[in-house]
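Hi Y.,

Following your request, here is the sequence exactly as I used it, all 150 residues.
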Amino acid sequence: MPFGRLDSSASPHAPMSDINVTPLVDVMLVLLVIFIITAPLMAGALRLDLPRAEGTQPAAAAPAAVQLAIDAEGHILLDGQPVNDDAALSARLAQVAARSPDTELQLSADARLPYGRAIAIIGLAQQAGLSRIGFVAEAVPRAADPARRR
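Below is the corresponding structure, written out as tokens. Let me know if you'd prefer a different format.
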């Protein structure tokens, strides 16, 4: 069965000059769906530049812990969920403290975050009833210490 034009007025051996765009449209629609699905996943995390400290060890699992992350611009995530303002953060921390007062707040603050802002967040946690606060830092790889060689 020959493929070609259905128009019988054209000569039977004339080349077909139309471009088939159906595969292009199919590929573009698949890419659009992929971007629509993955775009919200990429925006859900904060980029933190954690301070470095020697001797940092991962803490043993606390009985209950809440992750609080603050980036350099002051955007806050509490257990992966964005928090808009201090009042909402205080209310959510109070709910956590009401469930279990021994819950540890693990604070991951960007190194460029102003010190006063970090202290204000700690104050909100203490007012909410959370007294156990842990600071998350990035571990510095241990290199050969020249002072120890002497």
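The chain has a mean pLDDT of 80.

Thanks again,
Q.
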